[in-house]
Every structure is written in C-alpha cells, then in structure tokens.
Specification:
The chain is α+β, with helices and mostly antiparallel strands and 952 residues long. The protein is built from 33 helices and 33 strands.
C-alpha cells in the first residue's frame, strides 16, 4: 500500500513547473557541455591561427628589419661617398689621400654604425683603401659590383652568408656628375638578430647551411643533421641544447612550412624558421630560427576550458532561479515607459532621463532594451537639436566668408594690371576688369555682350571650337591712342554645372616691351654696337650659307684693314677713332650694302661678302672702296687724317671651301696689299708665292687643331722676381707646341696663324684651363701665374662666363691669376678692351698691360684702363745701359705708373748690371734670362700632382 501511494504522491508533487525546470535543466546541461567542447576547440583553433599570424608577423618583422638595416647601410654608404675630400683623390688614384679622407670617419662608422669593413675602389675594381675586417675580397664579386654600380650609377645592396652573414652596400663615388669609383660598407647581422629578439620576444638563432668549410664535428654549434652552423644565438646556455634536440627530429624545410611544437622539461616550446631570401650567395642558405615558450598559452587554454564549464554550470543554476522570478514586475516597468513617451515628444529630455535610470543588466530583457532605447533616443534627439543650431551658426559664418572672398576677387580683378575677360559659350563678354576698360577706353556697359574677337582679335576669334581645352596665343591690339600692343592670351575653361553651357576666362598680358627687348637682343647678337654693321659671327654664318648655296658658282670675300688707325687713336684719342670707324662703316654700307654683306670684324677690320662675283668684278669693287675712302676726308679738331685701307681679295671656291679657309686666304691677300703699299688691294690668285704661304697657313691651322684635340701643347713658366728682395712669387705662363719628335716648337711659328684663323681664342681657353688647374695646387704657396690673353679674346662675349666657370671648376683663387694684354690691343679698340678687362677684374683677377712704351703717346690711357701691372717693353730695357733715351723713357714710365698706383715689371733683364738701375727707378719686378729662363711647369714646381706636371 505504501509503495503504491509514494509514486502517486511524488507524481502529485512533481508539478508542471518542475517538469519544465527539469527538461530545461537537462537541455541547459547538454548545451553547457556542448558549448564547453566547442569553446575548447575554438580556443585551440584560435591559438593555432594566432600562432600562424604571429609567425607571419615575425617573418615580416625580420625581413623588414633586414630591409631597414640594408637601407640604413645604403644611406650611410651614400653619405660617406658624398664626402668632398674622397672623390678627387679617388679619381686621381691617390690611395694615400683616399685613406686620409676616411680615416676620420672610420671610428664613428665602426663604433656608432657597427660597420665591420669599408672598401674604396676605383672604376677597375682596384682597392685603394680598406678599413676593418670583413669577408675576403677574393670571395666577393667586386668586379661585377663595380661594373654594375659604375654603369648604372645606382647603389647596390646585398646579403651574403658563409661562415657568417653580412650585409653589403656599394655606392658610386661621383665627381662633377661622373662616377670615379665605388665605396663598399659591410655590417654583420648582429643588430638585426638583437632587434628580432626584442621585437618577437623569442630566442633567435642564425643558421647558415650548405657550406663544406663549416663542417667541424667538434664545434658544438655545428648541427650535422642540418649541415649547418649556428652563427648567432641569444641565450646560448638555454637555446643551444634545444636546437641540438630539434635538429635530431626536425628538418629545416618542414620548419619553413609550419612551426613545430615539442615538450622540454615540462615546458611547451614552438620552433619556427624564416628563410633569408635576400642572401645573394648561391652556395649557402641562411635561416633565422625562433624559439618561443608557449607553455602559458597552453595552460591558459586549459584554464579557460575549465572556467567555461564552471560558468556554464553556474549559469544553469542562475537561469533556473531566474525562471521562477522572470515575470516579476515587467508589466509595471512597461507601463512606466509608455507613460513617458508623450513627454519625449514634447522635448522634455531631462524629465525622461530622470524618470528612467541608466543602468546595465547582465541579461537584459525586452523592457530593458525598450528603456535603453528610449534613453538613447532622448540623447540623439537632444544632440540633433544642438547640431541644427550649430550648423545654422556655421552657415551664417560661411556666408560672411564667401562675401569677403567675393570682395577680394573683385578687388583683385580691378587692380591686376592684366586683361581679364570672361566669355559665355558663344564668345560674348560676360565680365571685364577695370584695366581692360582703361586700356580700351570703353566702360563696362559698352563691352558686356560684345564678341571677344570683335574687340581683341579683329573679328577672327576661333576659341570656342575647343571650349574645354586650355589655349594660349599672341595677338596684336590697337588701342585708341593708335599704339600697337602685343598681348599674350591665356584661355582656360571655367567650371560649369551639368546643365550649363561651357564658358571660359581669358587673361591677357601686355608683352610689347618684352618683344621689343627680344628684338633688340637679336639685333645686338648680329650687329657691331659701335658701327651698327653686322659683326664677325653674322659674317661668318653668312659666308658659310653663301658657300653652301653656291657650290657651283663664284663669290668673293674682301677683307679691309684701315692703315695708320693706331696712330689716329694715339694722336687724337679713342673717341676720334670711334668716330672714324662709324664714318667708314656708314660709307661702306650706303655704297656697297646692296651688293653684299658688310661687316666689322673687330678693331679696324671690315669685310665684304659678294655672291655671284668673279675676279674682275671683285677688283673693281676693291678699287671703288679705295676711291671712296680717299674721298672720305676726316678731320678731328685741327688735324686732318687721310683714310686709306689695305684690301685682300679671296675667291670661293678657288681659295677655300670653308669660312676659316676663306678668311685665312683673304687675310694673306690683305697682308700682301699692305706690303705693296701703292695699289692698296691684292687679289690672291695673282701671286704664286701667296699660294705657298696659304698652304703654309693651312698646314699650321691643321697642326693647331690637332694640338688642341690631342693636348700637344705644353706650358712653360718664367719667373718674375721682386727686385727689392729677390723673392719669386709670380711666374709668366708661356706656350710651346710639342712636335712629333718630342722637341718644342716656338709660338712664333703658330700664334700668328692662330690669330688670323680665329683659333687663338681656343688656344687662350686651353691655356687658361690648364693654368687654373695648376694654380689650384700652387696657390697655397702664394704662387701667382700670369697668362697672356689675345686681342680676339677681348671680343669674345663668353670670356667672362668661361673664366668664371673654369675658376669654379678648378677651385683656383682668382686673386692669384694675372691676365696680360698688349698695349696695342688695349688701345686699338679702347672701349671694348676697357669693358672686358673691367668685367674680368670684377671676378677677382688682376690685369697687366704688356709691351708698354712702344706707343708712348698712349700714356694717358693708364688712368682709364682697369690694370694693375705695367710691363715695360723689352726693347727699352735691353738698351738701357747704352741708350740715354731709353733711360729717360723707362724712368718716365715708372714715375707715371707709380702716380697712377700701378706696379711695373721690366722685361728682357739679361744682365746683372741692369738690376741697380731698375731699382733706382722704383721698378717693382724684373723678368728675363738673367733672372730665370723658361722651364716646363712640371719641372718648376715639384709638388704638382703627376697629372698636372705634364698637362698633355
């Protein structure tokens, strides 16, 4: 009976509520178990993914560390190679100077940058300097690096591993934009290994495999199964045993694919490998091995699994308890929220927040969501209302800023001194600034709506054929005052809306003055400013063009040289000489300008180019010129001068096939005319010996050209002694030509030909360049070099720029350079000479007037010429002991020079007896065979570098 009533009693007490609780409990327990298993699997998978990502990040960080180290090494090499004291000695192959250039940098490179070795080599791979200890040079592809770096001028970085791993950076050493050698820096991977250890938090080992020279069984770092050696290792006492253990069971390829996990002394360890792909050595392979202790992560996974299970059980218990009380009070809270919604609509946000407390529940229900949503909505509506107010204030400020910008643009349009015109899609003016109205003499109402082309382009506007393309052109504009202006127009499309027609703005700049200046520059480039005839450059270009046009026709060149022009300059002054030149030029142009090209070549030389002319016609024109000049009649003050000229006639193509040959032939004929003295003209073809002379001149022209190309000239120097204390700091540079047999040729053989052919300018430049190169080495001893300058160089417009460039390139001090010009050249074309000498003097150079005293009447030029020294002509010094007149002249020159503040130099001092006399006259310097004979510059100065001793 009892047994039958108990089940009934239990069944009666086991209510539906408890059945729901029991079933829900079973379900929750099953879910807890399932979630615990899934959580453990998920944690394990996340840990594996995390370790994979960690391994990939370690690979990136190691490779990034390698890349940063390589880039840092390359930049350090570039900075070292950019040293100004390294390039020149490396270019000269001076290993000692190369060593001195980097000795001061080596301690800093070694201690602060960790550089193991520095190599400096020339373009042939020859090592000129080395610091530190690194890989053997024979193991490095130095020649390959040199060719690659020199040819491409691109730095080279590489990584090579053998017994150790080292990074190399090779950069070119540049001098004036040209590669003269290569600099190589070497650094080990110690810093990279240390950085990898700090970044990854793992123990790091660097292993190099594949090298037979590493096979040393006794070495504890040698891993036989991997055929590799550990070259770098952190915490060796801990990590070495682990790697030896791992090498017995694991292979490096498998570690590259995925990290390996193994147990050691109760700890869980992970071993991974990173391949160094940048290693350029094809024999060896290098790897970074990372040992990570993951014991804590494994323990954490197990602890989290237990925690998850515990939380699930607790949650099951709490859920069952909450189920009994889940419906307590929810409806009251719902009625409270519903009563607050009208308050929210009225905008009383503070009442809502005070009625609903802000609180977070661990397991919120729908009522909690509704309350939090109501609170969030109140916050958002209040924020939106605030933002609307702020946006309104910002909009008002922006409107004010736009108004200011509009006023600024209007002010800019009205004050800019350029034409600014806006046009619509049909080319009609929609906006015009005040400057345009002022120039055109029209108001704005008269311009708006009119076609742009009618106003500015004489009715021929084609702008709107391509309205969306920017254009520019030049147009002429006739203003109301009948002035013709050149306007440079720039047309650009204006941005328009999608439904608006295209329009554009046109900006016009008045370039009338610039055009006039360009025309003036073109005129000056082709004209002689004194006579306004064509100059030498234009004449030579015209001669070249005429000879190319008349390959099968005849032509002639007439070269005129005024007789006794120097005397006119000396007797009446250079301004009278200029008047004579202008009068002769005017006469020649008005009478012969229609027959050919009339030009002034310089000084008192004129030339006439005739095309389609034979010998007979040329002679008649020459005779006509003689007659014109004889009838010219020139009076200066109370002195009347007779104007005559010597005219040389050369025919082409008979006497030359190039302008240089024709000018040389005409020059020969002109000198023949001077020798004649009666006829005043000479046709080259009438004298057989002139042909021989021309051949001789052509021969020397070719010899000079070859000498310039092959550097067959040689510099000599003769000392200029200070007479007071016999100190020698000045030397005059003299030029000789090296013959085929090695003998030296006097300049008397080739300088006259060079002056006539125009090659003297190139010779002057050669001597200047080589002298400045030597002077850059000698100036530290206080040596000054004096270089002779020809008369044609004084007419070289590019002389100042050339001299400035060479001074900068050589590093020579211009104060140690003296330029010598002869008195005759300076006085013949005084205005040109004074301007050129002044411009050269502004560079810092000093000027000497050579062969002074031949034209004694020119002493009054001393106060006007920018000179520092006067060299008294040697003819006076040579006869000083025997000729009283010479003594009077020399004393007078010395006194006048002293009065003008000039120093004097006596030439041709060939005996000791002259010295006391020169000192008594107050002459500062002496030069001559007694004081010192000319010697090769390399023999005179033993401290010149080898490349400057020969200068050829």
């Amino acid at each position: 009976m009892i047994k039958t009533t108990v089940p009934i009693h239990k069944s009666h007490r086991f209510s539906l509520t408890w059945r729901v609780i029991t079933l829900s409990s079973l379900l929750l327990l099953a879910l807890v178990t399932l979630f615990t298993v899934l959580g453990h699997d998920n944690l394990t998978r996340q840990f594996k993914e995390s370790r994979d990502q960690h391994h990939e990040r370690q690979q990136r960080e190691i490779r990034l560390a390698l890349q940063h180290s390589s880039e840092n090494l390359r930049q350090l090499a570039g900075l070292t190679a950019a040293s100004s004291s390294l390039g020149p000695p490396l270019q000269a192959g001076d290993s000692e100077t190369v060593g001195q250039a980097l000795n001061s940098q080596w301690p800093a490179l070694q201690l602060e940058a960790g550089i193991d070795e520095v190599l400096v080599m020339d373009t042939h791979g020859q090592v000129l300097g080395s610091w530190g200890m690194g890989a053997s040079e024979s193991q490095l592809p130095i020649l390959s690096w040199v060719r690659r770096v020199i040819n491409t001028e691109i730095p080279l970085t590489t990584l090579r591993c053998s017994t150790s791993c080292q990074q190399f950076a090779a950069v070119p050493v540049l001098v004036e934009g040209e590669s003269v050698g290569m600099l190589v820096l070497t650094r080990s991977l110690a810093d990279v290994t240390r950085e990898a250890n700090e970044v990854s938090g793992s123990e790091v080992a660097l292993v190099v495999t594949g090298a037979d020279d590493q096979r040393d069984i006794a070495d504890e770092r040698y891993l036989e199964r991997w055929n590799g050696r550990i070259t770098a290792l952190t915490r060796q006492e801990y990590s070495l045993a682990l790697l030896q253990q791992a090498a017995q069971t694991l292979s490096l390829p498998s570690l590259l694919e995925a990290p390996a996990i193994f147990e050691n002394e109760g700890r869980s360890l992970e071993l991974s490998a990173v391949d160094m792909e940048e290693d350029a050595d094809l024999i060896h392979s290098s790897y970074f091995l990372l040992i990570s202790d993951i014991t804590e992560q494994i323990d954490t996974i197990n602890q989290d699994t237990r925690t998850l299970l515990f939380v699930g059980v607790i949650g099951w218990i709490l859920a069952e308890l909450l189920l009994l009380f889940i419906l307590l009070g929810p409806m009251a809270r719902l009625r409270r929220v519903a009563g607050l919604l009208p308050t929210l609509a009225r905008g009383k946000f503070s009442d809502i927040r005070s009625a609903i407390p802000e609180r977070q529940r661990r397991l919120p229900d729908e009522i909690d969501v509704l309350e939090s949503t109501t609170l969030a909505l109140s916050h958002q509506l209040e924020m939106l209302e605030t933002q609307v107010q702020e946006r309104g204030e910002q909009l008002a400020e922006r409107i004010e800023e736009l108004a200011k910008e509009r006023d600024f643009v209007n002010s800019l349009l009205n004050t800019a001194q350029v034409f600014i015109v806006a046009q619509d899609s049909t080319g009609r003016i929609s906006l015009v600034n005040e400057y345009s109205q002022e120039i055109l003499g029209l108001d704005e109402s008269s311009l708006l709506g009119r076609n742009f082309g009618d106003i500015f382009e004489n009715g021929s506007s084609k702008l709107f054929h391509t309205p969306n393309v920017s254009q520019q052109d030049e147009k002429t504009l006739l203003t109301p005052d009948q002035s013709l202006h050149t306007i440079a127009w720039y047309h650009a499309p204006l941005q328009a809306g999608s439904n608006e027609q295209p329009s554009r703005i046109s900006v016009g700049l008045d370039i009338t003055k610039r055009k006039a200046a360009e025309a003036r520059l073109t005129w000056l480039a082709e004209r002689d400013p004194l006579t306004e005839l064509y100059n030498r450059r234009y004449f030579q270009n015209s001669l070249q063009a005429a000879m190319e046009r008349t390959m099968h026709a005849n032509g002639a060149v007439l070269l005129l040289d005024l007789d006794q022009f120097k005397e006119i300059n000396e007797l009446s002054g250079h301004h009278v000489g200029d008047q004579l030149l202008r009068k002769v030029a005017k006469t020649l142009f008005h009478n012969l300008g229609r027959h050919g090209v009339v030009a002034r070549l310089g000084g008192d030389e004129f030339a006439l180019l005739l095309e389609d002319t034979n010998a007979e016609q040329s002679v008649k024109i020459a005779q006509y010129i003689v007659q014109l000049l004889e009838n010219l009649g020139f009076t200066a003050g109370e002195r009347r001068h007779r104007v005559t000229a010597s005219i040389g006639i050369a025919l082409f193509p008979m006497h030359g096939h190039t302008p240089a040959d024709m000018m040389a032939s005409a020059d020969v004929a002109m000198y023949k005319a001077k020798e004649n003295g009666l006829q005043h003209w000479h046709l080259l073809s009438q004298a057989e010996n002139a042909k021989d002379e021309l051949k001789e001149r052509v021969y020397w022209v070719e010899r000079i050209r070859n000498a310039l190309e092959e550097n067959s000239f040689e510099l000599m120097v003769q000392p200029i002694m200070r007479l007071e204390d016999s100190d020698v700091k000045h030397h005059e540079v003299l030029l000789r030509m090296r013959d085929i047999d090695g003998s030296l040729i006097s300049p008397a053989h080739f300088i006259p030909v060079a002056e006539q052919s125009g090659q003297i300018v190139l010779i002057d430049r050669w001597v200047l360049r080589q002298s400045l190169k030597a002077l850059s080495q000698l100036q530290k001893r206080g040596i000054t070099l004096a270089v002779n300058l020809s008369g044609q160089s004084l007419h070289d417009e590019e002389l100042k720029q050339y001299l400035s460039d060479e001074l900068a390139a050589s590093g020579a001090d211009p104060h140690h350079l003296i330029l010598e010009v002869t008195e005759t050249v300076a006085v013949t074309d005084f205005s040109t000479a004074r301007g050129v000498l002044q411009s050269v003097r502004e560079l810092g150079c000093r000027i000497a007037l050579d062969d002074f005293g031949i034209g004694f009447s020119s002493l009054h030029y001393l106060g006007q010429l920018p000179i520092d020294y006067i060299k008294i002509d040697g003819s006076f010094i040579h006869s000083l002991l025997t000729n009283p007149d010479s003594r009077v002249i020399v004393r007078a020159i010395a006194d006048i020079a002293k009065g003008f503040g000039k120093q004097t130099i006596a030439e041709f001092v060939d005996q000791e007896a002259l010295l006391p006399l020169l000192k008594s006259y107050g002459i500062t310097y002496g030069q001559g065979f007694y004081l010192g004979q000319p010697v090769a510059i390399g023999n005179a100065f033993s401290d010149l570098p080898p490349s400057d001793k020969h200068l050829n």
